Amino acid sequence: MTIISTSNLKEFLPIMIPVMLIFIVLMPLAILIARAIVKGSDDLKPLITKRVKIIERRMPEGGIRLFCSYCAETETGERLLLRNFNEKKLIIREGDIGMISYRGKNIVSFNRIA
What we know:
The protein is of the alpha+beta class.
């Protein structure tokens, strides 16, 4: 078992603080860049609108949530796996039926049909 003495800690402290600060700054930046790449990859694809029923809401595993995924079924029986980057503004629940507009795999809008 290794014993850490205060003299060893004093040697590593000047190195640890900048490394931790760099990590704290770079991690959120890396998350924002990853989200922009994933979201922007579908921006040039055509906008498609279909009537669907939301079958399942899939939450990403792990600690970092960039988006929420949904499995939707169209009137023709086709199943779509789509993602929602605006969970707070665009609220979709399992069992919802409505018109969904999506570009690539990104949900642009969802209008419930009563």
